[in-house]
Amino acid sequence: MIGSESRQIETPDRPGPTLYFDGVCNLCNGLVAFVIRHDAAKKIRFVSLQSDLGKHALQEAGLDGHSLTTILFRDQNRLSVKSSAVFGLLKHLDKPWSFGSILMIFPRPIRDWVYSFIAARRYRWFGRRDACIVPTPELQSRFLSD
Question: What residue spans define the domains of the chain?
Fold first, then answer.
């Protein structure tokens, strides 16, 4: 299992930076909405982990294809999980949010412990939806589907 590491994966057919998220998690959907608001270049794409593309990405990361305990972030040929995914994502946002990536200076075990603590409680604290979000027509091109 890849755990909280990043790994190089050859994916020449994939478009630019991509966030893989739990489509029924309110916290994750809030993160997607935040990214949409703070990615003026509109370069980040989104994939629900419940989709076939999402399940494939989980398997690429060495995780169970049904595991929804982490987000993934693909930047070029690098697929990151947990806190590394969050901070990799931040690098692509507009300033001042992109400066948040400096928090990568903290050791990964500490960052991932905080990430896992929140992830384990996210449904209880933030709730969940019955189904994945359906993007508006204006955002449809940023959401990759099977």
Answer: 6-128
